[in-house]
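pipeline: protein-struct stage 2 | run 1193 | GNAT family N-acetyltransferase
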Amino acid sequence: MITLKGKNIYLRALEPEDLEFVYVVENDEEIWEVSNTQTPYSKFLIRQYLENAQQDIYEAKQLRLAICLGSSNATIGLIDLFDFDPKNNRAGIGILIQKKEDRTKGIGTEALDLLIQYAFNQLQLHQLYANIGVENKHSLQLFSKFGFQEIGIKKDWNKINGNYQDEYLVQLINHKK
């Protein structure tokens, strides 16, 4: 699909072969705070999820895509549209690059750009939003590159390591419609 192909990466639908990658990501306790996860996932549950991943966004109300390197086809992250609301033409957006050494190399920027363009041009969404912890400076910087604006702060929203932390709500309106 040309729509989801960039210069260095491409986004693709999840496949049954992604079981190990998704299993490792979902069970990495270091990233649980950004995904609001508190318990591990079994391979059985992830296999069931992948089997149902063929539902389209209108049915599932979400779209989860693998971020792959164009040079090697290696899967290095996940990017999502969630809480898809076709009535109000909006969705949440989230991104995760699995390994720290792959972050801050422009991969997230390229992936986010591809998904924003897809959401606005193909799905005709009016707005996208993201929930970002105030301590997550890299994500705040990434989303602000695309014009996402901080529109609110949720006080003491997430409990991380025994302490409550605030979370920003950021939003991008599609003014090109």
